[in-house]
Amino acid sequence: xxxxxxxxxxxxxxxxxxxxxxxxxxxxxxxxxxxxxxxxxxxxxxxxxxxxxxxxxxxxxxxxxxxxxxxxxxxxxxx
Length: 79
Hints:
This protein is an all-alpha fold. The chain has one domain: Helix Hairpins. It contains 2 helices and no strands. It has helices at 7-22, 28-59. Helix 1 packs antiparallel against helix 2 (28-59). The relative contact order is 0.13.
């Protein structure tokens, strides 16, 4: 796995990879390499988000130890 990369770094790299792949100016071998890297970046982002979700759920525990369920909605737009 990548060395301690942040969510923002992984997401930025993933965006760069998508842009390069969409340009259709890459040889097949390079495109496959970039695709593989993109999959790694995607997995890193997913794992970081999963951990963040668990942390949010932990933070909504009541003082008596019960957990109040608060849905995690990372992509909701503000109203």
